[in-house]
Specification:
The chain contains seven helices and six strands. By secondary structure, it is an alpha/beta fold. Helix 2 (about 30-45) crosses helix 3 (about 105-120).
């Protein structure tokens, strides 16, 4: 059972916490992680791109010149793809890029990503994340004292001041326990989570 230190907002160690092996101590499954990241990125695509084919471009109803005898190549319409202003060959059309994963594979990917952060020593457990006021500088000071750079802060819904204080910091992202995903965990160097959030995660995901 992995054990990590609990830190306060000043970066001082105030205790230790035993993490659940079922969530933070499994064998990392790289295939499941890859599938989860692929699904996340695919599901971010709007799929609204659209270009007109030769059938949809305005004009070009009349044959530009007769078939033979002009010395020029035969043409049927001025809206063929080789003409300026013509249609696009194999034009992109609106489509759904979303991918589906079953719950078991999603859960395995999440556990693998969390275990990887523990193995790398990049998981930081906070005693609490209660800031007295909404202030960006206060959040930056917390990051400096914890010695974390690009980080994902996972909290329960009660940490409103911290969430609002972090919204203007480009390398910091906040998330609730029920909104974390594999891509965000891997895309940030550090995974900072409150003690309360860890307990809730172990109840929900383990």
């Amino acid at each position: 059972m992995p054990s990590v230190p609990i830190k306060n907002l000043q970066g001082q160690t105030v205790g230790n916490m035993e993490l659940d092996d079922a969530l933070f101590g499994i064998e990392v499954n790289e295939h499941a992680v890859h599938a989860a990241v692929k699904q996340y990125l695919a599901n971010q695509r709007q799929g609204t791109k659209s270009t007109k084919t030769r059938a949809e471009v305005r004009g070009g109803g009349r044959k530009p010149w007769r078939q033979k005898g002009t010395g020029r190549a035969r043409q049927g319409t001025i809206r063929a793809p080789q003409w300026v202003g013509g249609g696009v060959v194999f034009a992109p059309k609106p489509r759904d890029f979303s991918i589906r994963l079953n719950k078991k594979q999603k859960r395995l990917a999440l556990k693998s990503a969390l275990t990887d952060k523990v193995n790398q020593g990049k998981l930081v457990v906070l005693e609490h994340m209660d800031l007295p006021e909404i202030k960006t500088k206060a959040m930056i000071d917390v990051c400096e004292k914890l010695e974390v750079g690009k980080a994902l802060f996972v909290m329960t819904g009660s940490n409103t001041n911290a969430i609002l204080s972090a919204r203007n910091i480009p390398h910091i992202k906040t998330a609730a326990v029920n909104t974390i995903n594999v891509y965000d965990i891997l895309n940030h160097d550090n995974f900072v989570v409150t003690k309360e959030a860890v307990e809730k995660m172990q109840e929900v995901y383990a």
